[in-house]
C-alpha cells in the first residue's frame, strides 16, 4: 500500500479522524439514520442496514491502494458523526480526491466539516506533497457545492451524465479542485473560520 492510501489518525480541536474499521459500524448506523440522511436522493449514503457492506467496500478499496477511508469522531461528545475518504489516489503524481463524505445533521454547521477538511488538506499538501486535491459532487447537491466553494476550491467543470444514481437518474458531476500554490491561502481562511467558531 502506498503512503497516500494510508489513513493515519488525524486530530484537531473538534474532531478526530480515525482509520475506518468495522468497529465504527454502530456509530455510522446512527449517523445515517439521523434525519433519514440516507434518503437524500442526490447522494450515495448507505441505509442503516447497508453500513457494514459500505465499510467493507471502502476497506477493500483501501487494500487495493486506491482509497484511504476515515470515520469522523466529534471530540465534544465522543460520538462518531460521519465518514470521509481520499479517493482516486494517484501516487505517481501525486494527487487525490476528497469525497464519499457524510455527517450527521447534528454535526453540520458546527465547524466539524471545516476542521475535517483542514486536517485532510494539510496531510495531502504538507505530508504527501500532492500537486492537487479534487472534490466532486452532484449538480443538485447545492449544500455540498456551496461548502466546497467556501473552502476556496475552484470549479473545473461539469461532467454531464457522468454516473447512474441508485434510483436510475443520471448524475451531472461538478468537479472542483485546489492546487498546491493555493493551499496557503485556503489554510489561512480555514483557520480564520475555525477561530471564529466555524459555521460548517
TrEMBL record:
Group of enzyme by EC: transferase
Q: Does the keyword Cell membrane apply?
A: no
**EC number assigned by the record:** 2.3.-.-
Give one GO term, molecular function aspect: acyltransferase activity
Entries under Pfam families matching the protein: Acetyltransf_3 (PF13302)
* Domain of life of the native organism: Bacteria
- UniProt domain N-acetyltransferase: residue ranges: 14-154
InterPro entries the record matches: Acyl_CoA_acyltransferase, GNAT_dom
Q: Would the keyword Zinc turn up in this protein's UniProt record?
A: no
Keyword entries, A-Z? Acyltransferase, Transferase
Name the UniProt record assigns to this protein: GNAT family N-acetyltransferase
User: What organism is this sequence from?
Assistant: Kineococcus mangrovi
